[in-house]
Structure formats: structure tokens, C-alpha cells
Amino acid sequence: MTKEIDRRTLLAISTLLATGAAFPAAADDKPTGDPRGAIMEIPPDAPKVAMLIHPKMVAIDLIGPMSVFNIMRFNVQLVWKDKTPVTTELGIPIQATHTFEECPSDLDVLFVAGGLMGTIDCMNDPDVLAFLADRGERAKWVTSVCTGGLLIGAAGLLKGYDATANWTVTDLLPLLGARHVDKRVVRDRNRMTGAGATAGLDFALELSAEMKGEEAARRVQLILEYAPAPPFSNGTPKQAGPQRVAEMRKRRTGMDRQARAAAELAGKRLGISRG
Amino acid sequence: MTKEIDRRTLLAISTLLATGAAFPAAADDKPTGDPRGAIMEIPPDAPKVAMLIHPKMVAIDLIGPMSVFNIMRFNVQLVWKDKTPVTTELGIPIQATHTFEECPSDLDVLFVAGGLMGTIDCMNDPDVLAFLADRGERAKWVTSVCTGGLLIGAAGLLKGYDATANWTVTDLLPLLGARHVDKRVVRDRNRMTGAGATAGLDFALELSAEMKGEEAARRVQLILEYAPAPPFSNGTPKQAGPQRVAEMRKRRTGMDRQARAAAELAGKRLGISRG
Description:
CATH architecture of chain A: 3-Layer(aba) Sandwich
CATH topology of chain A: Rossmann fold
Oligomer: homodimer
Helix content of chain A: 40-55%
Radius of gyration of chain A: 19 Å
CATH superfamily of chain A: Class I glutamine amidotransferase (GATase) domain
CATH class of chain A: Alpha Beta
Strand content of chain A: 5-15%
């Protein structure tokens, strides 16, 4: 995107975003008498949630949890270095609502989405790491989904914590000082990390329940009609079996190598000695 | 969005989209040796999938299935009247890659996402209905998720078919000549309809398996780590229980009334006599 686009249109896009962000909950959940969704305010005391977006991110890593937080009426901010839209793997560009500088200093939730190649770039990017380390130090919750776990780990936010991430990279978590726990969503004190991609829905419901109580989270679950029924049992390496896993690993050795290199470098910077 | 933005920036945004659309599968699934995702072609014989987007749509209705179709390397097109980005309930604008005119005439899959207020607008919009009726007549598969089921119904595409939709509107399906079947994903001949919002993942895996075989769909499931583990059992009216359902219904009587009116009008147009 050129600078010109930046200047000329981002204001208009921001307006769109602002309007949209003020839509009450899901479009299917508007109150009686105001079905067109006249602008409803996010409650002033709504939890401040900063969700890091980054180029090459995986869209559903963000959209899953954001759908939940939106219905919870959390004050969701999409955060990146600048407001040039980042491109997701789906080709759908997503624009930050806040730059790092504009992001509130004290957050209720810091969240990082995945998408391995984008994550690796960020793990090697001092600006991103400094931002995450700073906000993460004070955030009430430090969270991630998918390979976002590697990134908060590289920022030093998982040292001494139980955590999880996308199954393809969980072996790298110890390089960042974390202990991998093989669960869909792992909570350790104020850290909550989710497994790959679609785990974002489970993660966000669990976090919402922790923050606002089970009833509120149950309500969101019903609105999103989240009663999953996958046609197969193939969503984890264990379910898929060794042959399918080996086949997939073979196709991604180059990427896995880069991820390991980035994790090793980050671990060294963090002074983590491998046990 | 103003016309000015349209002209000045959509070309640039289109470029972004085009680049992104050519990303191979999920960012986590790039082949060895080319981990940065140098542009990989969609296979020339890839199934042509047209996904209708519309203002006020619910983002996850689209992003869930699109994430699956993208990893399947289907030729996914986002279709709307024009290329002014539509705003989703999350405030994230999404731009069509193809207008109605540009959309291929013979599709492998016609798909319609939900978001009730947007769906209602479309149910009353002759251009949208004409487009859906035309493409739906020849498409190999006619599909929907969430309240998108109402919309393909209003276009006459569910007359005499079993179907489902978001749980809040399934009672309206008979007005459109369809028989509601209480399942997460309902298939009847070449119609496949999904329940609310998150059912899009289950739907897309099932459709992918039908189109390209179970192994291909299982591979996608592993890449998306789709082994859901919701913290509660509250994703259907039955699971939530009558009290929670009544509470939710109370908040949406205005919207429900509009949905019924739109369905009755559509049913009348289609000459459906209620049994």
C-alpha cells in the first residue's frame, strides 16, 4: 500500500471501522426496537483488549476470538506498527485500529494471533518484541493462539509458564522458557494460550468466562451456535496418526527450520538455558 | 465509502487481495524450500467457489469456510454487487473480488454467509435474488451457513429441500418451501446448509470431503487443528435450555419480526403454499 492511500483513505476506512466496532455484538444479537443497529457504545468500563495483527497472519486466528470478544462487548483494538492493512493468508487485508504508540499502556488482555511465517518475522523484529514485552508486563492477561504462542514467548512472556501453541511448533516452546502442556487451552496464572487456529474459539470462551463469568460466556456460545461437530476425528497429531503427521511434516521442513532458528535466537537473547 | 475512495484505492486493495489470494493454502502450510510463500497458482482445474458477501454480514460465517476452501486450493471468489468493501459486524471491511457480472456463470459451489440484518436486506433485494437464482440453478453445489440459509431460500433454491440455518430462524425455512432438519450440517442432493456461525467449519470440511475425498478434508482439519473443546455445552437451544433461549429471544423480537416478514414476502413471491 502506498503512502497516498494511507493518507487519503484510511480516515474513511477508520470511520467504517469505528462504526462497525460500535455495532452491538453479533449482527444477530441486536436489541428489540433497534434492529438496524443504531450505534451502541462499548461500555466505558469494558475490558481493553489489544489484538496484535501482523502481515501473513492467519485470519481465523484473529476472527475466532474477536467474534467472541465482540459479542462480550469488550473494547477490542487491532494493533500493529502502522495502519497499512496487513494481508492475511486469505488475501483479506485487515487494518489496525491502533498503532503501538496509540495502544493503551495498561491492558486487560494482550492477544497475539498466529500464522507461522508472520510470527517468525515478528520474532526477529525488535519493535514488535519491545511492544509485546512492555504491554505484556502490565496486562492482566497475556494470551495467544496458534503460533502466536511462539511470539509472546520470544518477547519473554512465557518464561517459567505452562503454555501451548500450534501442534507443529510446541516442541519449540521450551527454547523460550515455557513448558508445553498438551491441552487445547492452557492456563497458567495470567497466561492463557491456545492450540492451533480453530482453538481460538475455545480459548476466547474460556477467557471470557474467567473475566465475566460462565453465564456471559455461555450466552456467546449460543449466539455463535458453537456446538461443533467435525465430520472426522483428525484435528490433533494423535487423532491424525503418525503417517498423516509425517506426510505433513515433510512438506514444511524449510518452515520448521526457520521457526527453530528464530526460537533459538530468541531464547539466547532471553538468556534461557536449556534443561 | 465514497466514490473517490472507490476509484483511488480499490485498485491497490485489489492488488493486495490478488497477491493474498495466491498465497498457498494456510500460511502454516507452505511447501519446503519456498517458505515465504512465493506466489503459487491455484490449480487451473480448481473448483470455482463463489462466496456471497454482503453489508452487515457476520465475519466468521465467511472466514470459517473460506479458511477451509483456501487450504483445499479451491478457486475462491468473494462476490457482491460492486467492489465497495462491505462492513462486517466486527468492523472489518471485506471487498469483493468479483462483481455479480464478473462471477463465472457455471460454479462448482455457490455459498451464502449469514448475519441476519444483512440477510434480510438481501432477501428484499431483486438484484441479489436474481443473481443467486441464476447461479444457483446451474451450480454443482448450493450452500449456506447461518442465516444465509434464509437468503438462498428466498431465492427459491430450497424449495422441496431439507435444510438448516441459524437456530433463531429455522422456523422460517418452511415459509420458503424447505423442511428444517435439526442437524449441524444438512445435505439434501446438491444442497448443503449449515447451522449458525461456527457451523461453517463443519460444513466446509464436509463439503470438501464430498468434493475431493475424505483424506483431503482430514488434512485440512489437521492444519486448522480442528479438535474443538468448548468449555461449556451451550451451543444449541437444547443445550442452553429454555430459560437462556427465552432470555435471548426477548432481546431480538424486533429482528425476528423483520425476518419473518421478509420470509413471508419471499414465500409469496415463490408461490409457496404453507402446509
